Amino acid sequence: MSSAGFTPIESLLDLDSLLSAEDRDLRAMVRQFGEQRLRPNIAEWFEAGHVPVRDIAVEVGKLGLLGMHLTGYGCGGSTATAYGLVCQELEAVDSGLRSLVSVQGSLAMFAIHRWGSEEQRERWLPGMAAGELIGCFGLTEPDFGSNPGGMRTTARRDGSDWVLNGSKMWITNASVADVAVVWAREPGGHVLGFAVPTDTEGFSAREMTRKLSLRASVTSEFSLDDVRVPEEARLPGAEGLKGPLSCLSEARFGIVFGAVGAARDCLEATIEYVRSREVFDKPLAAYQLTQAKIADMAVELSKAQLLALHLGRLKDEGRIRPEQVSVGKLNNVREALEIARQCRTLLGANGITLEYPVLRHANNLESVLTYEGTSEVHQLVIGEALTGSSAFR
Question: Which of 26, 77, 86, 113 is least enclosed by beta carbons within 10 angstroms?
Answer without folding.
Answer: 77
